[in-house]
Amino acid sequence: MVTCIYARRVHTTLLHVSLYPWAVSITGALLIGVIPVLAGAISMLLADRGCSTAFFDVLSGGDPVMYQHLFWVFGHPEVYVIILPVFGIVSHAVHRIAFFSLFNMIGMIYAMVAIAVVGYFVWAHHMFTVGLDVDTRAYFSSATLLIALPTSIKVFS
Question: What gap in Å lies between CA 83 and CA 25, rounded to an integer?
Answer without folding.
Answer: 13
